[in-house]
Amino acid sequence: MTEQPARWSQATVHPDMWVDPDDDPRNTDGPSPDGELATLRDFLTGYRMTLRMKCEGLDAEELARRPIPPSTLSLLGLLRHLAETERDWLNWISEGEPLPSLYGEPDGDFDGAVAEPSEVDAAYAALTRAQAATDAALAGHPDLGERVGRNGIAVRELLVHMVEEYARHCGHADLLRECVDGRVGQ
């Protein structure tokens, strides 16, 4: 990378935010959710939205850009990786045969993230389907202590792991987005 983009934020109220509070779909007025299950789901929903927000407004080339060599990380790769990860979580919950990998070989999620609009559309569609499938499977298990799947993982452990995975990758998305076009904010 030879030229650094200028840092900027769309927010006008708080310059360290991604968007103004009134424009933030994650911003909910009122009390926080009651209970551990509702709290975990709320955090997961917020991080899922954050990842999508960090990718909004970019074209296929920008989403596929790998701005931090030698890393293969890109925003498009993160979308694909989290679709693959959601599928893995669904396999953890399932008693049946595991679903096959979405992107084949290890690192296929990042290596196959190419600057094609059809790849971007496919990545968003795969992520949406995978999230819906995971959520539907988890809806049948409201007891956080219940052990599910072939390996008997506790629902609580799975949800905490999901929040952790998205939170970590949202941090990557922060840095990648800033490298692509200079946009910053929580």
Automatic annotation (TrEMBL):
Region described as Disordered: spans on this chain? 1-38
Q: Which domain of life is it from?
A: Bacteria
Q: Where is the composition biased (Polar residues)?
A: 1-12
Recorded protein name is DUF664 domain-containing protein
